[in-house]
Design brief:
By secondary structure, the protein is an alpha+beta fold. The protein is 42% helix and 13% strand. The longest helix is centred in the middle third of the chain and has 37 residues. The chain is elongated.
Amino acid sequence: MAENERDEFLNRERLCPSCRSTINILAVKCKFCGQDIGKPKEELRELSSEDLGGESIVHSAPSGTVMSAIEAFRAENLGSDGSDPRSDSDGGGGADVPQASIEVGPDGLPILNATSQGLNSLSESTFSARATVSKPPTSFKDRAVPIGLIIVGLIVIVFAGIKATTWVMDYLEAKNRVVVPDFINRYYEILANGGSAVEALEAAKEALDANNSDANQKIATIALTAIEKEVNDRLNTVNWSMATIGKAAGMAESALYAYPHTLTGNLEKKTKEENRLYSMTLKSITPDGKSATFTLLNGQPLDNVRKGDVIELRFDVVHISQISVILEDRLRKSRAGAAREVSFNLKNRNAH
């Protein structure tokens, strides 16, 4: 018997999922379209119509609850013994009341009337009745309270964020702040020990670079003013000479190197110009003593210089003789307060 069932199973057919042609149930490749279709998951199991490519038909049957309701309904209308309770109990003489006929469906179950169908729909429904509670509309006050709490919370969060940011910035600034060590300004110490003004200026600049404090700035200003005064004193001295002018120029140059500043830069330019003008030399005097020739520091000649002329917008020619020439400096003064005299002669051709 089992062998016959197996043979019957092996002869069954199914539809190709690709071309829908009929093929053997155990075929792994369609002989019509060549599509690989694979074996059934279980070769010996009883395949359903879905496995064979067909449609499944679902038959609904009343539940046990519905059947119980139907039986209760029949017992109520026909009696517990199946007789119609509406007929006479003594069985005599009265007119027979026709009993209600019950129609039976193809599945052997009675066909439900309207009442039974209602019971069936109640039985098959799975919903649960839930009471719906209507809420009264919220007032503006009820809405304003949570909104106000939200706004207050946002303000607190923003304020806390600002404070936290400020704290972090202060912390980072304090962490990265360079601690300036105490640096002793040696300006006055150098002057007290007989040091030069340029050395004292250099010390003041060094202290200012180490600590740009108000005190060091004040000392630096004092040092610059002292340098300016000493240079001008050497340029304006009544006992001037080319040596004093040279020393003034050297001092200004050293001050600019020690402390690059507008003041030291102007001093260096002024002393260079002073040294250029005073470095001119007398080249010759005409035999009649009427004119002379000078040579400037850069080698440029000044020919035919006569009494009353002005050299380089600075020196007035006040005297020319056969052996000497006398100039007066418009900018520098003599001991008496008059213009400084600058003399040249054929023996000492330089200014003196």
